[in-house]
């Protein structure tokens, strides 16, 4: 590996533990290491990672940072979907309503598991220890040395603990001082990912979208389907988002009811309908919301910090969950480098204030797109032309952002505000 790591401004460097070796935890490890901090370990509760999930997007905003931190982003781009454009189609007949560059949505779409493998490899290349089978069961927010306890009973201390422990974060309870239950977004996804059989490939009623790399969306009233291929057409993914006000068991693994799927796609464009209807099994993925959190930082030591889905999960229509986790990693690493060892709390509180408004913009992109898609064809006659702009994905403006530069540019203003709040003895909650 050939890149220059920055020198730590601290002597000795800050010792940091990361909880969760998902894409967010890996990005945090790489960013913090690049900025000269000492990443003691990345802990994950699972014993080994499987190829879980399906399609995930990574945008230019993330690639820019990863490349700066010495990662060969071509490794990801090469395995991402290479389709030049994506098509947004009418639910009933597949008529193309808008076509736009794939890069307008998420940059490269690839399999979450494949991208995760590469992130893990980048962490290991830096000799950062990833400890698997290490479930964190509790945190202690002692100042100035917070700690965590593993299921084995082992206690670990650090200068900073980064909790990238996902949507069901344990650390979030400590940070908020209470449990927060998921709230239904009112929607759920059925999703399936599989290698098409030879029989399917030969069947004209099911093979219309099997050739090469492609990305398509079918939009209708309160419903949409995302379909894409991966690995040059050898793998096939569909995701059906629909209204769902039922209970919210929040799970990545809940089996879906294919009869319900068949009912929902009964009037979908026949060119994709049969491919979906004949799918053997799918997952039922409730899209759970959490209201924007009032804080991402622990109340006593201010040294246990949330990052990624633990504090800023996105809707799938944002296509920015992993990219924003990467941005947060860069901002946190910069903030920690701008303070002395005794001032970590200024850095962590500045980090949440810097990141919150940006995250809300990115989250709102997903809500806006879903709402535009689900409403565009309501009460519209079949033969009426739709303005393509109404249904286009508008993520591109998000990509120019550089979260490290932003942290530096706004540091004086934001850190002064944090200092004033500490002086007054009251940290203002994050709010829109
Ligand atoms: C199984 C799964 C499938 C997904 N599928 C998709 C998908 O298809 N498309 C998509 O866009 N996004 C998907 N996502 C979400 C996407 O990965 C995230 O939005 C994004 O990568 C940011 O993730 P994160 O690292 O913040 O959280 P996560 O990816 O959820 O990672 C959190 C990590 O923390 C670990 N962890 C949790 N609690 C503890 C604990 N107490 N102790 C130690 N370790 C702990 C978990 O094992 C996990 O590895 C999926 C996530 C998961 C977990």
From TrEMBL:
Residues in FAD-binding domain copies: 16-174
Top-rank taxon: Eukaryota
Listed Pfam families: FAD_binding_3
UniProt key word Oxidoreductase: yes
Stored InterPro entries: FAD-bd, FAD-dep_Monooxygenase_BioMet, FAD/NAD-bd_sf
Keywords: FAD, Flavoprotein, Monooxygenase, Oxidoreductase
GO molecular function, one term: FAD binding
UniProt family annotation: Belongs to the paxM FAD-dependent monooxygenase family.
Protein name: FAD/NAD(P)-binding domain-containing protein
Originating organism: Canariomyces notabilis
């Amino acid at each position: 590996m050939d890149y220059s790591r920055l020198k730590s401004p601290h002597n000795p460097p800050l010792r940091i533990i990361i909880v969760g070796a998902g894409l967010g935890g890996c990005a945090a490890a790489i960013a913090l290491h690049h900025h000269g901090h000492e990443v003691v370990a990345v802990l994950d509760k699972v014993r080994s990672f499987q190829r879980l999930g399906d399609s995930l997007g990574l945008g230019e905003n993330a690639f820019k940072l990863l490349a700066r931190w010495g990662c060969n982003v071509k490794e990801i781009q090469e395995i991402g979907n290479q389709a030049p454009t994506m098509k947004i189609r009418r639910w009933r007949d597949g008529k193309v309503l808008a076509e736009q560059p794939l890069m307008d949505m998420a940059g490269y779409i690839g399999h979450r598991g494949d991208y995760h493998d590469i992130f893990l490899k980048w962490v290991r290349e830096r000799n950062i220890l990833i400890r698997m089978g290490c479930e964190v069961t509790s945190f202690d927010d002692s100042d100035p040395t917070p700690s965590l306890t593993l299921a084995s009973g082992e206690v670990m201390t650090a200068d900073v603990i980064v909790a990238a422990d996902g949507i069901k974060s344990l650390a979030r309870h400590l940070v908020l001082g209470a449990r927060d239950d998921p709230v239904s977004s009112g929607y759920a996804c059925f999703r399936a990912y599989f290698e098409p059989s030879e029989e399917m490939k030969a069947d004209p009623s099911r093979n219309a979208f099997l050739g090469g790399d492609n990305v398509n969306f079918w939009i209708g009233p309160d419903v949409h389907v995302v379909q894409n291929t991966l690995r040059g057409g050898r793998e096939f993914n569909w995701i059906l988002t629909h209204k769902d006000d039922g209970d919210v068991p929040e799970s990545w693994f809940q089996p879906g009811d294919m009869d319900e799927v068949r009912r929902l796609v009964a009037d979908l464009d026949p060119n994709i309908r049969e491919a979906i209807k004949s799918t053997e099994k799918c997952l039922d993925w409730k899209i759970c919301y959490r209201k924007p959190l009032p804080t991402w930082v622990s109340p006593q030591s201010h040294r246990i910090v949330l990052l990624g889905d633990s504090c800023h999960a996105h809707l799938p229509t944002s296509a920015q969950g992993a990219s924003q986790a990467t941005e947060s990693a860069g901002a946190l690493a910069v903030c920690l480098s701008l303070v002395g060892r005794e001032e970590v709390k200024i850095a962590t509180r500045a980090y949440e204030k810097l990141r919150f408004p940006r995250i809300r913009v990115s989250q709102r992109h997903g809500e806006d797109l879903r709402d535009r898609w689900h409403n565009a064809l309501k009460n519209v006659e079949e033969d009426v032309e739709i303005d393509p702009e109404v249904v286009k994905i508008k993520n591109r403006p998000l990509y120019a952002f550089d979260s490290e530069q932003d942290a530096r540019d706004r540091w004086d203003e934001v850190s002064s505000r944090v200092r004033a709040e500490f002086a007054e003895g009251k940290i203002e909650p994050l709010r829109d």
